[in-house]
Model the fold of this input.
Amino acid sequence: MTRLHIFDMDGTLMRGSSASMEIARELGVVEEFRQLEAALGRGVLDPPGYAERAYEWWTALTEAQLRTAFEGSPWLRGIREVWADIRARGEYCAVVSLSPDFFVRRLRGWGAHEARASRFPEVPFAAEAVLDLAGIMLPETKVTVADELCARYGVGREDCVAYGDSLSDTALFEAVPVSVAVNGDHHVTGMATFAYTGDDLREAYGLARGEGHVSL
Done:
């Protein structure tokens, strides 16, 4: 059976943080982004509203700062190894995230077949660049993207495995037969097929394989 493995990024591949917070550390605006994330969590802001506010703070973001934020993020161990194993089995792996595409698509260099995320202008932002809110991902968009990827790779929803950690992953967890809550909160832990707490993606992947820890 050929499978499509779909990974969330913030809080899943990256433990306890997000692309926005790691960029905020580089820009020295951590408290401002904590307030933004709290507003998002309370429903005061929706994802497009959050993206619009974040874009204003990222005006001066440089490629060097972006690279440092990405490389210094608290990534789980074993990401490259898991994706190499998926590829070796003739299967597919994709990252689908609400975070900005200029951050998420760097994961293709680690072995992901696809990296789908909210569309932002390129860094550094040109003075005339405009953020199109129609390109901002919503939680339910993850299911739409999953269906697009299924069509591309010739698989069905029944062949998908989803990995996520929070409310933004619930729609996808409901749509596919196998799901893994990776350091998940109360929104996903109870509904996931498997739940994993730890710092090594190989162990979460092993649960989806029904093999415990996969030696890669």
